[in-house]
Amino acid sequence: MRSSSLTLAFALLLGALGFGGQATAAGPAPLAETAPTGFAAVNALGQNGTTGGVGGATVTATTSEQFLRYIDTVGPLIIKVQGTINITSKQGVRPNKTIIGIGSSGVINGGGLDFYRSYNVIVRNIKFTNAEDDAVNVGRESHHIWIDHNEFVAPVDGALDINRAAEYVTVSWNWFNKTDKNMLIGHSDGNGGQDAGKLKVSIHHNFFDGSKQRNPRVRFGEPVHVYNNYFRNNELYGVAATMNAGVLVEGNYFENVPHPCYSASGYADSGPGRLVQRGNQFVGSGTCETNGSVTEPRAFYAYTLDPAANVPSLVRAGAGVGKIGSI
Fold first, then answer.
1. From the CB of residue 156, how many other CB atoms can be counted at a distance below 10 Å?
2. Per-residue pLDDT, 73
3. Using CA atoms, how far apart are residues 108 and 187, in angstroms rounded to an integer?
4. Catalytic site residue from 94, 124, 164, 214
5. Which domains does the chain have, with CATH numbers?
6. Which residues, 6 or more positions from 100, have their beta carbon under 8 angstroms from its beta carbon?
7. What pLDDT is attached to residue 131?
8. Per-residue pLDDT at 326
9. What is the per-residue pLDDT for 29?
10. Tell me, what's the pLDDT at 325?
């Protein structure tokens, strides 16, 4: 089913709450998904897709103490976030959790979320501000993680990193708001022994809005599927496939991006990767550098593309917080 046109029925996670899309200056917001598409929806590693805290209690965190206690709870839990939660460093999230902001109020400020051998976690509708390190780190062998409809502002390091053999991750409908080192997939050039054959990630309908670089930068992962995203004013580059990563860049819209893609030339100290591009639009942008072949995502999941020409309006209307209705 097309991700921009699914009927909103978030009953899977929170019960029959009857959300509706929220209009913006860019037009009516697309109705949000009921469940992830892409790799987070794949049945693998003993997990039937990504359902988060379904089956657990629903709680509301209004203080940092409450929030930290809830994310450290063993077992399924749906955690609503109301207001600003001030934390430090990166705080671990246990498996089987849904973390979801209420309306447009949910903010995590100063610190971030860390996934270490965690799984089946959903993070939606949260504004991450001023993280002193990464805002979200999907790390050590974590899997089935859905990062959806969030906004990332001014992290000191990455907005969202995925590394150390993490896989079955979907990153969708997020607003990366003028971040710098935005999204790193793969820990380092020397970490191929751990990361090769892992790092299966779907990245769709995100707004890479003035995010300077790493949208994403990929080492070793394959396939990494970058589709139907809106890249605008990315100062250094859009997507970089390095260290034999396999990246499919498909149906995206690049506007004022001097280097939409790196691959055959590698990037910085990292060696070349493989990158296939098809169906993209380039406006005021350079050439997307391609190299080799890539494992098709359709070997893992079905998907339907929105036309690249429609992506700016769809993404501006639908990405970020406050677009999945009021809770």
1. 13
2. 98
3. 24
4. 214
5. 50-318 (2.160.20.10)
6. 13, 14, 78, 79, 80, 81, 106, 122, 123, 124, 125, 126, 327
7. 98
8. 57
9. 77
10. 73
Q: Compute the radius of gyration of the chain from its Cα atoms.
A: 18
- Token couple for 82: 């109301």
What the block records as the tokens of 76 is 């399924």
Q: Cβ neighbours of residue 268 under 8 Å, at least 6 residues apart?
A: none
Q: What token pair was written down for 327?
A: 């809770």
pLDDT at residue 26, rounded to an integer: 55
- Collapsing DSSP states into helix, strand and coil, what is residue 205? coil
Q: Tell me the DSSP string of 58-111.
A: EEEE-SHHHHHHHHT-SS-EEEEE-SEEE--SEEE--SSEEEEESTT--EEES-
User: Is the CA virtual torsion 163, 167, 169, 171 positive or negative?
Assistant: positive
pLDDT less than 50: residues of the chain: 1-25
Cis omega before residue 36 (within 30°)?
A: no
| pLDDT, mean over the chain | 92
What SS3 class is residue 241?
strand
Active site residue 69: no
Residue 165 near residue 195, CB atoms below 8 Å: yes
pLDDT at 68: 98
What pLDDT, on a 0 to 100 scale, did the predictor assign at position 244? 98
What DSSP element (H or E) covers 185?
A: strand 183-185
In terms of residues, how long is the chain? 327
* Cβ-Cβ contacts under 8 Å for 216 (sequence gap 6 or more): 162, 182, 183, 184, 185, 201, 203, 224, 226, 239, 240
Q: Is the pTM of this model over 0.85?
A: yes
Give the C-alpha separation, 17 to 20, whole Å.
10
How high is the pLDDT of residue 27? 62
